[in-house]
Design goal:
With about 110 residues, this protein is mainly alpha-helical. It contains five helices and no strands.
C-alpha cells in the first residue's frame, strides 16, 4: 500500500507542478485557463510537497521502517483532511482515505 500511495503522490506532484496550466490539469482541477495561470506557482509548491510525501513513504519502505511508514501515512491523512476542508471534499477520498486504510492495515 505504501508504494501505491507513493506512486499516487508522485502523480499528484507531477500533475500539479507540470500540467496544472495544461488542458488536462484544468480539466482535472476544474479550473479555467486564467485561474490556472494565476494559481500555477501555488500548485507547483503544493506539488513539491506531494513529492516529499512520496519520498518519505519510499524511504520508509526501502528501510522497512514501520514507524516512519505510519508517520508518513499520518502526514498524508492530515494533508488530505486539510485539503478537503479548504479546497475540495474530493481530496478526502482521493488522498486521505487510501492512506487511512493503509495506516489501519499496518496495525493488523
Amino acid at each position: 500500500m505504501a508504494w501505491l500511495i507513493a506512486i499516487q503522490h508522485i502523480g499528484f506532484g507531477v500533475l500539479e507542478m507540470f500540467f496544472f496550466k495544461k488542458p488536462l490539469g484544468q480539466k482535472i482541477f476544474r479550473v479555467d485557463a486564467a485561474f490556472a495561470e494565476r494559481a500555477a506557482p501555488l500548485m507547483a509548491n503544493q506539488g513539491l510537497y506531494n513529492l516529499f510525501l512520496a519520498a518519505g513513504l519510499i524511504v520508509a519502505e526501502v528501510h522497512a521502517d514501520l514507524f516512519w511508514t505510519r508517520f508518513f501515512f499520518a502526514c498524508v491523512i492530515v494533508a488530505g483532511a486539510f485539503g478537503a476542508a479548504t479546497v475540495s471534499k474530493r481530496i478526502l477520498w482521493l488522498q486521505a482515505a487510501p492512506a487511512a486504510i493503509a495506516l489501519g492495515l499496518t496495525f493488523l
